[in-house]
Write a structure and sequence with these properties.
The protein is mainly alpha-helical. It has one domain. It has eight helices and no strands. α1 runs antiparallel to α7 and α4 runs antiparallel to α7. The longest helix has 27 residues.
Length: 197
Amino acid sequence: MTRYVFTICAVALALVPYSASAHVGGGDAGFVRGFFHPLGRVDHIFAMIAVGLFAAHLGGRALWLVPLTFLATMATAGLLGIAGVCLPFVEIGIGMSVLVLGPTIAFQLYLPTLAAMGLVGFFAIFHGHAHGAEMVRSVSGLTFGFGILCATALLHAVGIGLGTAVNHTAQEYSRRIIQVSGGAMAIARIGILGGVF
């Protein structure tokens, strides 16, 4: 799955003309600008990778259902953001996604697949709404949104790849690596909130 996501997004990125990467907020905004949009904030990056790590930790059907739920919910919430639907506490929700998923990974908590889908779906609402509210209302809005989804899928794939690689290392080390990763994400988010980073 990870290999296919990387391939599809890499091909899409290569086929999009670089003239489509006009500055957001001023006219056209295409796939390239959308692709790099989620990469501009550390909390978004941490949350997306955390979703992938969480999915890899759960394994089985959760490996693809959890990231897919996040992407589908984020796209739906993005449409609400574009439509101007008000959602309170968006920034808090984005911050909480890392503060909750980080310790969940660090403490190796196992959730049923449906519960895990509900958890990441809840946080995807805030991420999607934020992206949608920031999206330029133009003819290229669709390609901008597709770029965001592609970047998000790639970050999920990075998390899945890291989690899968760690799971295949020696048992005594893999658990510690995952725990440290999840804890580091939560600590980094606290540092962002406190203005340290």
